[in-house]
Amino acid sequence: LDTLEKWVTEIFSEIPNNGLPKPSFGHLTQPFDTPEFHKLYRVVPIRKVHSLTITWALPPQEQYYRVKPLHYISWLVGHEGKGSVLSFLRKKFWALALYGGNGETGFEQNSTYSIFSISVTLTDEGYKHFYEVAHVVFQYVKMLQKRGPDKRQVIWEEIQKIEANEFHYQEQTDPVDYVESLCENMQLFQKEDFLTGDQLLFEYKPEV
User: Fold this and answer.
1) Which residues contact 167 (CB under 8 A, 6 or more apart)?
2) In angstroms, rounded to a whole number, what is the distance separating the alpha carbons of residues 73 and 65?
3) Which domains does the chain have, with CATH numbers?
4) pLDDT, tens digit, for every residue of 96-138?
5) Are 159 and 75 in contact (CB under 8 A)?
6) Dmax of the chain from CA atoms?
7) Which contacts (CB < 8 Å, 24+ apart) does range 184-191 have?
């Protein structure tokens, strides 16, 4: 560590600190509030696969990284057990898989907006009924919205424990990739959260 610290000091200490604040593009609000966004697009796939993707553009969520509200919602949407969206669609023979979420960086999350997507891998029969599939997804999201998260802290704590276990027992990554990840985290999180901000859940805030 002493050697590494010496190298870092030698290499980086001459870089001037201009005292400039982190750039923010928060003034560029609602970039997807256009007629083109509120449409259904059909794309012919290269592989023989049917996929339905529903995308919402939300206000920026990066400030809530200690809560991770979109991770919480994606956990509920992606649940595969009894009463889940996927369970219902599978009984109809309309879907093979379903996942939802936000990458929490880059195009999917920044100081202007956050993207939340739900993708459903459809069967041939499901493709014929994709309007009904979309309706079921919207019904489920509406149900979550109506019920609210107040009574669901147990679910949040379960997610928190699973993410903590994955963090503590993760495989060692390539050092170059790890440094690159940390450098990116330094632009997104508070100093004490550089190592953990992109993985752990810290606070339960149902209002968020």
Assistant:
1) 196, 199, 200
2) 14
3) 36-187 (3.30.830.10)
4) 999 999 988 888 998 899 999 999 999 999 999 999 999 999 9
5) yes
6) 64
7) 184/105, 187/22, 188/62, 188/65, 188/105, 189/65
